[in-house]
Amino acid sequence: NNKIGNHSVDPMGSRDNSAFWKSRASAPGTPPTSNDLPKASFEYEKREEVVEDQIFEKCSQSSSRTERFRTLLDSPNVDLEKLRSLSWGGISPEIRAQTWKILLGYLPTNKERREYTIERKRQEYLSFVPQYERARDQYPDGDPNEGAIYHQIHIDVPRTNPSCSLFQNEIVQRSLESILYVWAYRHPASGYVQGINDLATPFFVVFLSEYISEEDIQACRMETISPEDLRKVEADCFWCMTKLLDSIQENYTFAQPGIQRMIFKLQGLTIKIDSALAAHLEAQEAHFIQFAFRWMNCLLMREIPLRLIVRIWDTYLSEAEEFSVFHVYVCAAFLVQWSDTLCKLEFQDLMKFLQHLPTTNWGNKEVEMLLSQAFLYKSLYK
């Protein structure tokens, strides 16, 4: 274990930073800047007298923000920096799918080129689907390499987000199998790795909402979408997931060195932010890799409800190539949030708590606070 020294840094100071939070309320939708930062490090707590619930609701629901999005998206050439800045604070559901596609570079910023580009990419995906269908139909008697890929995906797909009934639907599961198999087949350096199935789900939900209502999604009424439109959803998921994974490919190659670096960075941040928590984890021999590996591998998707992961991804995708760096700071803010409880627990109960964190009843407020806290940690400790 790394030795934890006597750190004098106290980022949990008690100075009142109400002026900072009030300044954020006046400009929702953009990350804090260095000029916004309070002069002293501050504590992650719910300052009820300053950060009212309405602030966070306005972050993603403001009609004026939605109009700003529409103006950007309808322009002949989207200003990508402005779109990223606006997206950081959340994207309205009705324009999320298009915005995500542009942020990821799947759709071009040039408006006139979008229809041709997306049609070409969808057709390209359709040309890959027979690879999946062959492996599925010939399993287990077909090519052993193709069969091994299909077998692992076929096992994992039913385990995907078990708390969400949509992903227990057979039609959805076949779509996920197709997306994941095609991706694995075309990325032999890494192949399919457990956890990638989770990363497809935010894209699937968001892009499915372009074709069927939220009520139909909640009720799993997949018969309301045509097979042709479902293939479009699959294609868009495949290409956007590919864009995302290309930026974190070292997380899924042999020995997963990218994830190991992220865990090491999280441990170092925890020492700086909350040395008492870091010392307690070490004393209990609760190694970061035992609980944080899943946080990095699945981007907290098994810790936070999917409806809120979609909101977090608004911010992640606006961070572009830096999103995996920012994710570590989100994990640091996430871990430190439970510090008081964790420091009272011994190893067995501590690990059980970390594996079943009480986030089921979280809402927008908790997520907005988590993201703002992560941004400030990044500004203070980068």
From TrEMBL:
Pfam families: RabGAP-TBC (PF00566). GO terms for molecular function: 14-3-3 protein binding; GTPase activator activity. SUPFAM superfamilies: Ypt/Rab-GAP domain of gyp1p. It comes from the Eukaryota. Residues 1-38 are annotated as: Disordered. Keywords: GTPase activation, Phosphoprotein. InterPro entries: Rab-GAP-TBC_dom, Rab-GAP_TBC_sf. This is Rab-GAP TBC domain-containing protein.
